[in-house]
Amino acid sequence: MIESTSNAQMKKIQKLKKSAKFRRQEHCFIVEGFKMVEEALRYKKARIVYVSEDAMEEWQARRIEDGMKSIRCEEVSTSVFRQISDTETPQGVLALVEMPEYDRDALLEAEHPALICLEDVQDPGNLGTIMRTAEGAGMTAVVMTKGCVDLFNPKVVRSTMGAMFRMPFYIVESMTEEIRHLQGQGFTVYSSQLDGSRNFTECQYQGKVGILVGNEANGIRPETSACANEKIHIPMEGEVESLNAAVSAALLMYEVHRKRRK
Amino acid sequence: MIESTSNAQMKKIQKLKKSAKFRRQEHCFIVEGFKMVEEALRYKKARIVYVSEDAMEEWQARRIEDGMKSIRCEEVSTSVFRQISDTETPQGVLALVEMPEYDRDALLEAEHPALICLEDVQDPGNLGTIMRTAEGAGMTAVVMTKGCVDLFNPKVVRSTMGAMFRMPFYIVESMTEEIRHLQGQGFTVYSSQLDGSRNFTECQYQGKVGILVGNEANGIRPETSACANEKIHIPMEGEVESLNAAVSAALLMYEVHRKRRK
C-alpha cells in the first residue's frame, strides 16, 4: 500500500494533474471517480488504477461485475488519496490513462464530416461541455487550436463526462491554416460572430461542414473570420453582449444536427 | 482608507460572500469587477463601492465618464482588497448591492409570458449561464425552486455577466405547486427529460409557456414531471447519457424564441 505523498507514483500523478507539458511528454493523463475510471477501462485506455484503502471493497465488487480483472491496481492509504484527489469528498479511485489519438486525414475522409472548430477556447468547463455536446449532436470531430485550454486538464476531463473517450478530436497550430486546408478538401466553414450577417437558423449546413467558435472574451480572430465562407450570428434579445461559448457551440451544433437529419 | 480585514465592513463583505442566509437577512449581495459594478450602478442597485488603493485612479476616471459621482465610495488598501477578492488578479473594485425583486403576479400578466422553470439546479455556473441565456432568448422570467443554488452566490453572479440585473426572476417553494398555479393561469408546461415522448423541435410553444429543467444529476422530480402538459426530449447521438443543464436550457429557450418570432 502507498502511504506517502512523496512516493514516486504519487508525485507523478500530481505532476500529471498540473502540467500540460508533462502530460504531453508522458502521453497520459489522470481521470478520477468510478464513472470516469470505468469509461477509461471500457476504452482500454487505463494503464494503472489507484484505489484508496476505504474504497477497495466497492472497487473490487465493481471490478468483478465489469469483468475487469487484469488491470494493474495499486492501493493508496485514505489520507494520501485525499491529498492527491481534486475533489473534497473523493470517491477513492483514479487512473493513469493513455491519451486517445486520432488521424486527421481519416476523420476528414468520413462521409459528410461536420467539425466543431475551436479557436483559443480558454475555460476548462466550456471545452469539456463542448466535447460532451459535440457527441450528443453527432459531430464528426472537435478541432482545437494550440491556444485552447489543454483537453487533458483535470477540469476539462471532468466536464466531458466521458465524452473525451468517444469523441474524436485533433489539435492544430493555426485555425487560419486549418480552414484553408479544410476548404481545399471541399468544406464550407461557418464563422459564428456577433456581427455575422446571417441568422444561424437560415443556413442548411449540408455536405462537409466546419463551425467556428472563438475565444470567450475576444471571439474569433479577424484573420480567421476572414477565411470563413459564411459569417453567422445567434440572435440576442435584451442587452446581453454575448452568449457563453459552450452555449453558442451547442446551439450551432444542434442546428447542424437538425438540418442534416431532416 | 480601510487597512484591516477585521474592519467591520470587510467582515460584512466576507460574510455576504459566504452565507446565503446572511444575504437574505441583509437583502444585499456582492459583485466584483468594473463591469459588474458599473451594471449595478446603472440599475441603481449599488449601495457602497469599495475600491482598492491601486485601482482608485482608473475608478475615478471611469466614474466621471459615467456621470456616477454620488455613490458612497470607500478606499481599501491593496493588500486587504486582495484578501477579500474572489479572483487571483482582482480588478480592484467591488460593490455591496441591493437584491433586485420582482412581482410574480405582474410577470405572469405579461402578454404571452415564457418562463424557464428550474428545479434544484445546483451548479453555480449553470444557473448563471441560464440567466444570461434567458435574457438572450427573450424569456420573460426565470423561476427557481428554493432547492436551486442561491442566485446571489458570487460564482452565480459572475457567470450571469450582468444579466442578473436585467432578467426578472422569482423563487418558489415547490415546482409542483407552481406548475399547478401556472396551469390555472392558462400556461402550458413542457418538461424536458431523457424519456420525454416528443422531440423538442416538434412543439410550437405558443401562448403562455413554461419550460422545466431539472437537477444536474437527477433531472426533474417524478411528481413535478407528472404535472407537466408535455414531456419533451432533446435527441442525442453517440453514448452521451445527458447534456449539461445550461446547454439543455439554452437549446429549449432558443427553440421557444425561434417558434415565437416566426
Structural commentary:
Two copies of one chain form a homodimer. Chain A has 262 residues and is of the alpha/beta class. Chain A contains eleven helices and eleven strands. In chain A, the strands form two sheets. Chain A has a seven-stranded parallel β-sheet, sandwiched between helices. In chain A, strand 2, helix 4 (56-66) and strand 3 form a beta-alpha-beta unit. In chain A, helix 7 runs parallel beside helix 8 and helix 7 runs parallel beside helix 11 (245-261). The radius of gyration of chain A is 20 Å and the shape is elongated. The mean pLDDT of chain A is 94. Chain A binds chain B through residues 125, 129, 132-133, 135-138, 159, 161-163, 166-167, 201, 234-244, 246-247, 250-251, 254, 257-258, 261, and chain B through 125, 129, 132-133, 135-138, 159, 161-163, 166-167, 201, 234-244, 246-247, 250-251, 254, 257-258, 261.
Architecture blueprint of SSEs:
The structure is a homodimer of 262-residue chains.
Chain A: H1 8-18, H2 20-26, E1 28-32, H3 34-42, E2 46-52, H4 56-66, E3 72-76, H5 78-84, E4 93-98, H6 104-108, E5 114-118, H7 124-136, E6 141-145, H8 154-160, E7 169-172, H9 175-184, E8 188-192, E9 198-199, E10 209-213, H10 222-227, E11 230-233, H11 245-261
Parallel strand pairs in A: 2-3, 5-6, 5-10, 6-7, 8-10, 8-11, 9-11
Antiparallel strand pairs in A: 1-4, 2-4
Helix pairs in contact in A: 7-8, 7-11
